[in-house]
Automatic annotation (TrEMBL):
Keyword Hydrolase: yes
One Pfam family linked to the record: Hydrolase_3
Lineage, uppermost ranks: Bacteria, Bacillati, Actinomycetota, Actinomycetes, Bifidobacteriales
Assigned keywords, A-Z: Hydrolase
Name listed for the protein in its UniProt record: HAD family hydrolase
Protein species of origin: Bifidobacterium callitrichos
Length: 277
């Protein structure tokens, strides 16, 4: 039976230092040779999907936490914030003194003062992911492709991520922007480090539904792999869900199988256990 495999990227396909295990590359190539289709399903926008990932050999991607769907080089869906929505959000975040960046397929665009305003969040997020040098990281280490001094009033934005000064910033932003999809990441509830704003109704699960319709494939054929809270709807939606060993407790509680850690060849071993290779 041909399977549709959906892979989160950070913490699933690559480790938290962006290292891509050779075992994962080999497993994906073998799975595709066996007739399965493999898509990354990530919060990253296309600008952050760098050549080493495409060189694995992928059938496509879901990006921006579900705002963008591409299959075999064809754009199946791309929903962005309107220019008016982006402008309102930029003005609001600036008025609250919150550092933020815009996520577009053309690049990542930083707010004024982003390097200073995001430093504590970048270091804390990296520390939570186990990076030994987290306390000395710079924002440019965390976001090497970030564009500074770029245009911030844009009509091509998939989503916006902003640093939380406190959880109240998220609550106030959610109330202010009920026409957008509001979320957090880098922790649950009050421990979250970042908030985000996206297109209303957009989730990884919705994007998978769009992809399946395009492929004329069945939900029963889907297998999802993830490690973070944002992946829970994807694992719940798909017929079979795999949580990485390094994943959060809520992902593991949702999963049908718990794999080894990403650094311990978890993806490859899970492919073997499920019978994909």
């Amino acid at each position: 039976m041909r399977r549709i495999i959906l892979l989160d990227v950070d913490g699933t396909l690559v480790d938290y230092e962006n290292n891509l295990p050779d075992s994962a590359v080999e497993a994906i190539r073998k799975a595709r040779a066996n007739g399965h289709k493999v898509y990354i399903c990530t919060g990253r926008s296309k600008a952050e999907v760098y050549p080493p990932l495409w060189e694995i050999g992928l059938d496509g991607m879901i990006g921006g936490n579900g705002s963008y769907v591409e299959s075999d080089g064809e754009v199946v869906m791309h929903q962005t914030l309107t220019l008016e929505q982006c402008t309102r959000a930029v003005d609001w975040l600036n008025s609250r003194g919150l550092a933020f960046y815009l996520e577009s397929n053309s690049g990542l665009y930083a707010s004024e003062g982003f390097e200073e305003g995001a430093l504590a969040a970048v270091r804390e997020y990296s520390a939570r992911k186990g990076k030994e040098d987290a306390c000395t990281m710079t924002v440019r280490d965390g976001y090497p492709e970030m564009i500074y001094d770029g245009e911030l009033y844009r009509g091509d934005v998939n989503k916006i991520s902003y640093v939380l000064g406190s959880y109240q910033d998220f609550l106030d932003t959610r109330e202010r922007f009920d026409d957008l999809q509001n979320g957090t990441w880098g922790g649950r509830d009050a421990t979250a480090l970042w908030g985000d704003l996206g297109v209303k109704g957009i989730t990884k699960a919705h994007a998978i539904d769009v992809l399946l319709a395009h492929l004329r494939a069945d939900r029963a054929d889907t297998i999802a792999f993830g490690d973070a809270t944002v992946d829970v709807p994807m694992l719940e939606y798909c017929a079979f869900g795999v949580a990485m060993g390094n994943g959060s407790d809520d992902v593991k509680a949702t999963a049908d199988l718990i794999a080894d850690d990403v650094e311990a060849d978890g993806l490859a071993h899970a492919f073997e256990r499920i019978g994909l290779v």
